[in-house]
Amino acid sequence: MSNTPAESDTENVGNSVSSAIVIGAGLGGLSAAMRLGAKGYRVTVLDRLDLPGGRGSSITRGGHRFDLGPTIVTVPQELRSLWKVCGRDFDKDVDLREINPFYEIRWPDGSKFTVTGSTEEMRAEVARLSPGDVAGYDKFLKDSEKRYWFGFENLGRRSMHELWELIKVLPTFGMLRADKSVVAHARSRVRDPRLQMALSFHPLFIGGDPMNVTSMYILVSYLEKEYGVHYAMGGVAAIAKAMANVVEDQGGSVRLGTEVDEILVENGRAAGVRMADGEVLKADLVVSNSDPGFTYDHLLRNHRRKRWTTQKLKKSRWSMGLFVWYFGTKGTRSMWKDVPQHTILSGPRYEGLLNDIFIKGKLADDMSLYVHRPSLIDPSCAPEGDDTFYALSPVPHLGHDNGVNWAEMAQSYRQKVLENLEEHLLPGLGEHLTEEVIFTPETFRSRYLSPLGAGFSVEPRIFQSAWFRPHNVSEEVEGLYLVGAGTHPGAGVPGVISTALVMDTLVPPAPRPMPAS
């Protein structure tokens, strides 16, 4: 991986008869680069950050490695299939460890709910909290499995860029009540409010409001149970690094610390890119792993757009923002023995808090937190005897009328997170703090060029999913393809890996060079 442009790179991109440029070295972009390399394209990946991975990259401070984005891997066969397409063995390149229990949910009343891969253990957990809800939980799992096979294995693996593809599946959408929200579906199966939350919060991990996104997303419960929850040693950043290595082994290049300013269009077709420093790179096709909003509104700003106009993008609903506090602690490895690797601290409100975040755009006084403690399994992320943590709070994105001024609020909100953690999970935390980094929606806007500082691009509501979502093949410019969280099928590690799989079905194999006469 290079942090400086090499002159030969420009020549290779410009002169190759089967060249491709990938804008962005996130997991979607790297997956696309690997698939294009396997198809015979000579690929150049361009990214403005100093490490591959995009949101899945990392920052190291004082011996603490802070994994910035995804913390778990589900459906690992997606990665293994990707490596296999490239003639490689994923498990030789990445050390993936299964985690069990998956995570623990804690409520303010002191009750807990431990999620595992065992159906019988889960039924026992449900019975412990609410004996009358076991039968409803069984029905919910069956509902989840049906939606998994249709939503993930069917829709999630094929392009939805043609309206006919949507029309064909409308009867199934109707049968599965895709019009109902995830929360509404959970309510229809279990009565205990804690279980309703435990069975419906998952869309938050892909940027969706559980009270408004389609009930198709209850598929996550089956997906987790069937395929487990995993952690990559070295974090997701280790997966990204392994992906970049595959790209380079295929003869491609990954250029870091270099920024694309514009996608060049010639005769209605993507012809390459212009870099921020004025350098021009030509290519036969272009793949953008930038957010679709940024791709269309900035990278294609000089091209007339028919569908994804500035006005259309402004009317879109975007996922919530994220406040993420990464911090290290000194001498705590033997402390807080009841705190697992993954904990969800539910606040005193669930539906009311969701309404504040997604609808009102209000930074509430209360909060719910996702807390990650990777040092329990991965000694490489913290000095010996110490811990590395990640506390994430969903917050409004920057596009609301009463938007949060994070320059003023970041430290006070960090204090609220600290007090919450000390009271409910990590007593005495403040006495052990060492290194720390804070990301707000402003960071997401500046670091990842994410519209409105949204954490997961376009929100996956029903009319922003499948055909309604930005397509993997651009309808604006021939020879331009899109991958990543804002495209079909959506966010999350399996989702962004699948965006490249869908793209792969649309891109023709690289033409073979004519033999010398």
What does this structure look like?
It is a single chain. It contains 17 helices and 20 strands. α2 runs parallel beside α11, α2 runs parallel beside α17 and α6 packs across α10. 34% of the residues lie in helices and 19% in strands. The protein has 517 residues and is an alpha/beta fold. About 3% of the residues have low confidence. The two termini are 36 Å apart.
Protein traits:
517 residues, alpha/beta, 7-stranded mixed beta sheet, 17 helices
Q: What global shape is seen?
A: globular
Average residue pLDDT: 92
CA gyration radius, whole angstroms: 22 Å
Largest sheet: 7 strands, mixed
**SS strand fraction:** 15-25%
Q: Taking strands numbered 1, 2, ... along the chain, how are they ordered across the largest sheet?
A: 8-7-16-17-18-15-19
Alpha-beta classification: alpha/beta
Total helix count? 17
Helix residue percentage: 25-40%
- Subunit organisation of the chains: single chain
Low-confidence segments, ≥5 residues, pLDDT <50? 4-16
Number of strands: 20
- The N- to C-terminal Cα distance equals 36 Å
Write a compact overview of the structure shown.
By secondary structure, this protein is α/β, with parallel strands linked by helices.
What layout of secondary structure does this protein have?
Blueprint: H1 7-15, E1 19-23, H2 27-38, E2 42-46, E3 58-61, E4 64-67, E5 73-74, H3 77-85, H4 90-93, E6 96-99, E7 103-106, E8 112-115, H5 119-129, H6 134-152, H7 163-175, H8 182-189, H9 193-198, H10 219-227, E9 229-232, H11 236-249, E10 253-255, E11 260-266, E12 269-275, E13 280-282, E14 285-288, H12 292-299, H13 310-315, E15 321-329, E16 342-345, H14 351-360, E17 369-372, E18 387-395, H15 406-424, E19 433-439, H16 441-447, E20 480-482, H17 493-506
Parallel strand pairs: 1-2, 1-14, 2-10, 7-16, 14-20
Antiparallel strand pairs: 3-4, 5-9, 6-9, 7-8, 11-12, 12-13, 15-18, 15-19, 16-17, 17-18
